[in-house]
Amino acid sequence: MSHSDPPNRYSYSPSLHWNPQLHQYFLNAYGADHFSRISAALTRPSRYSCIRVNTLRSGADAVIEKLRPLVSNVSVAVQSEFEDGESNPLKECLEDASAPFSKCKIPGLDYVVFVWGSGPHRIGYGEAPPKEVIVSRKCAEAVLRGAQVYVPGVMACSAHVEKGDTVAVSVAVEQQGADGGWGIPMTRGTVLQGSETDAYYFERNGLYIGQGAAMLSRAGMFRVSEGVGVDMKDRVYDLHSFHNLLEGEIFLQNLPSIIAAHALDPQRGERILDMCAAPGGKTTAIAILMKDEGEIVATDRSHNKVLDIQKLAAEMGLSCIKTFKLDALKSVCRRDDIDTFTDPCCNNAKNDVTNQVFDSPNLEVEIVSPIVTEGKDEKTNGRVYVSKADARKNMRRARNGPGRNQSVGGRVDRSKGFPPDSFDRVLLDAPCSALGLRPRLFAGEDTIESLRNHAKYQRRMFDQAVQLVRPGGVIVYSTCTINPGENEALVRYALDKYKYLSLAPQHPRIGGPGLVGSCEFADGYVEEWLRPGEEELVQRFDPSSPLDTIGFFISKFLVGSKDT
């Protein structure tokens, strides 16, 4: 590298830049030292992958043997110079420190397999300034989790890069413009000359995520719309990719999400609602805990996401899952829509539960044909002209996936909602600010107002959930955010509004306690959290804790008599 470069330029030392008011809110909630650790942890991936085994088809030992030849050994004993020395308690029973696999030792979770990685590692980029590729922030976050660099994520590239060249990979994180908006002021296809006049030259200091071999020339990277652009060879975090491995037999899932399914404690033969169920990880986890006996109604407002749930359930061979397109805010059907298709006391303990709702007038079948982006036209000699605008639109679709109004096609049943008290248990894994997901390299757009809006939306969804659970039933509410306003404040709202709700103990319990107290905002609004004695009845997963999980929150409510 050049002598003029700062010593930490070719390193990975990111920091999250928060909205100032939001930053102060989190400082009040956690304290300066604790929030500093949380913020730093969010920029790193967990140093292990968590695999949930489909126990209806296989077992943990069998999966480990199948994965062993497919997963290269990584030394899990490597301790980074940046770590604080605290060991992950999930590793305590690891028999072989050099083996990447271990079974979970938490009671009841012996079907969960941990695949250990390592990092952060210092990467040697050589003495001279390396040839470089700049990738988008979302691409970089995926690479940090073990993915390759795919062509749609490449933003810029050094001149004269040829296939097979070694390239350093850095990330362009959104910057705030003069108008207050956030973006990347760089045209895709920008040429890098290796000088300080390059785009994002200084902004990329400390944002290098590894190096790899270019799979295409520079021209090729910006000419094709899909495929691997850089095959990563040396990574800051060495984690395993499980893309397309043992489909139907395993599912890659964060440990707290698995804990949430256990907290619901589903029983065979019960009728369970999973609101906002996509992509189906918790839905299928619940179905497997029930031994595929009973009925799970899984809903989502997106056609394509409902199709994702259907696909996952089919891959795993699960028949008890019924999927519907339904806005969670309309989960309770109107009185004039209530039909005899549901029995509010439905608790079929038999193994032949059928989906009686298909013949109900409360349901409509939605069949959407996939978007056609290319084809043949007899009047143009079998070729269809694609404008540059359409080509750009297709590129965005390849990079970002289909949008809300762009369906990939397939049959989805639409529901008008369900009668009150018609489910034994409800899981509400609510849409949230997702401020617990990691790795995260950008947080600038989140504000106090946007987080308050999330909380308002979640309360309305919870109101629906409460109506749908029968007396004696259970509600589990979870999020993947560190925001107390979407976690402890929701619990306070629920307990204060619905006197027949009570917090229940959760099993297993490996998360930490919730936050007690309140927070007063500049506009005078006071956000109430938990009261003393309630903190041990919820589970808060701290991304900076030795467990090394995402940030997550789980609360469990017992539903008493609604007549009181």
Automatic annotation (TrEMBL):
Transmembrane segments: none annotated. GO terms for biological process: RNA methylation. The keyword Translocase does not apply. S-adenosyl-L-methionine binds at C276, A277, A278, P279, G280, G281, K282, D300, D327, D429. Residues 183-560 form the SAM-dependent MTase RsmB/NOP-type domain. Belongs to the class I-like SAM-binding methyltransferase superfamily. RsmB/NOP family. This is Ribosomal RNA small subunit methyltransferase B. It comes from Vigna unguiculata (Cowpea).
